[in-house]
Specification:
Jelly Rolls; seven-stranded mixed beta sheet
């Protein structure tokens, strides 16, 4: 098993929580920054974008998350809406490429589940992440992403762990430079991506990252709402 800093950093990125994080700041909704081992931090700040309340993300060869813990039982995992504004695509990035795995925007949902069902190697990786960071990775993580190299609607398995799966929602020129509003059946998307019913939802987050391609990106996120 590879145990270098890059492996742990990627595992942390993918699993929305396998990393040391500072205590939550005084955010009224409980959002807080989550730093990733060995990575510069993406900057997140509250802002208005075209008259909408938004979260601005600015990444400069960096990767970190903006996260909120939740506790939503499986029978309440239903429809969710969110939005993003991407001013420019990351030309060299691909969420399916292990060496270029950056994204202008990611909206992330972390789920609990029966860890005993996971293969022994996967559980060993989770144990390692917990020992190094003090926090066990979620059972499964589903991301919605902007990506120019994978077809819209496709499900992409993370190159380093199949416990992270991504659904590509946008990526063509028509999606750039304007608000893109999405409403998804989160439970149905989870079943499609993982082939089983979701467990409890334990965290939501967003992430704009350019650490692998050594680039720079700016993006805005609208509120994440459950219906």
């Amino acid at each position: 098993m590879q145990v270098g800093g890059r492996w742990i950093g990627v595992l942390a990125v993918g699993l929305l929580g396998a990393c040391a994080s500072p205590p939550p700041a005084a955010d009224p909704e409980g959002w807080h920054a989550v730093l990733l081992p060995g990575k510069s931090a993406t900057q997140y700040s509250r802002a208005d974008k075209d008259g909408r309340p938004a979260l601005r993300a600015l990444s400069d060869r960096s990767a970190s998350m903006w996260r909120r813990r939740v506790n939503l039982p499986p029978d309440r995992v239903g429809e969710v809406s969110f939005s993003w504004w991407v001013p420019q695509a990351l030309a060299d990035a691909s969420v399916a490429d292990i060496d270029r795995e950056d994204a202008a925007v990611r909206v992330i949902f972390a789920f609990d589940g029966d860890h005993a069902r996971l293969p022994l190697r996967q559980r060993a990786m989770f144990d390692l992440a917990e020992a190094l960071t003090g926090e066990r990775p979620p059972y499964a993580t589903l991301m919605y992403v902007f990506d120019t190299r994978s077809p819209a609607g496709s499900v992409v398995v993370n190159p380093r762990t199949d416990r992270v799966r991504k659904i590509v929602l946008d990526g063509d020129a028509a999606a750039i430079g304007r608000w893109r509003d999405h409403r998804r059946d989160l439970a149905a998307d989870y079943r499609r991506a993982f082939g089983e019913d979701p467990g409890p939802l334990i965290a939501v987050g967003v992430m704009t990252d350019t650490d692998n391609t050594a680039g720079r990106a700016e993006a805005w996120y609208g509120p994440i709402r459950f219906h």
